[in-house]
Amino acid sequence: MSSTTESVDSSICEDTVRSPLWMSLYVLSTASGAVNENTVSSVPAANNPCPLRNMGDNAEYWVNDNRKAFTFKFPATIDLNGQYNRTGPYFNLPRTGLDLRALKKMQAQFEIRPLNIDAKDAFPEEVITCSSSVLDMLNVLHGEAEDARNAHEFCASKSERCSP
Question: How far is residue 164's CA from residue 156's CA, in Å, rounded to a whole number?
Fold first, then answer.
């Protein structure tokens, strides 16, 4: 057996493993770094979210204790027909011809959707759970960040000295 197959929980019978995609999704959703019930508590509350100067933008990022951008791993589907999809060549490529500098700056923007919870016959249960947990986790992180901002703004508006 390969090392990927050996990493799968032995309680899963062989006839359940249906495809390489099934196996890959199972391994992804059970690996370290995959979103699970402990992911929110593993994100340090201090200084999150914060801007990262080396990113060259004004966006805020969730960072780990080493001030590196936090990476969340989870299975999802890409919605290429979504309202915010920007993957077409008309959006990214310059109209002035092929320019290598422009090619290096090309970006794609797309929407993701959690896996359908009714697809339990197509995906392992762990995969559905991991995928479903992402939006809840992001809502919690966003809510905590907004609460901290609001508390800080309230303190600043009252000219009080307090810590957010």
Answer: 10
- Distance (Å, rounded) from C-alpha 123 to C-alpha 23? 9
Which one, of 150, 149, 151, 113, lies nearest residue 132 by Cα?
113
What does the alpha-carbon distance between residue 77 and residue 115 come to, in Å, rounded to a whole number? 6
Q: Is the pTM of this model over 0.70?
A: no
Say if CB 61 and CB 49 are below 8 A apart.
yes
pLDDT in tens, 11-36: 454 555 578 888 898 998 988 888 88
SS3 142: helix
Crossing angle of helices 20-30 and 125-157, rounded to 10°: 40
Listed residue (25, 36, 24, 27) closest to 9, CA to CA? 27
Tell me the C-alpha distance between 80 and 20, whole Å: 24
* Tokens coding 34: 């995959």
Contact of 26 with 8, CB cutoff 8 Å: yes
* One-character DSSP codes across 37-89: TTHHHHS-STT-SEE-GGGTSS-EE-B-TTSPBP--B---EEETTSTT-B-SH
Torsion angle, alpha carbons of 19, 24, 30, 35, to 10: -120
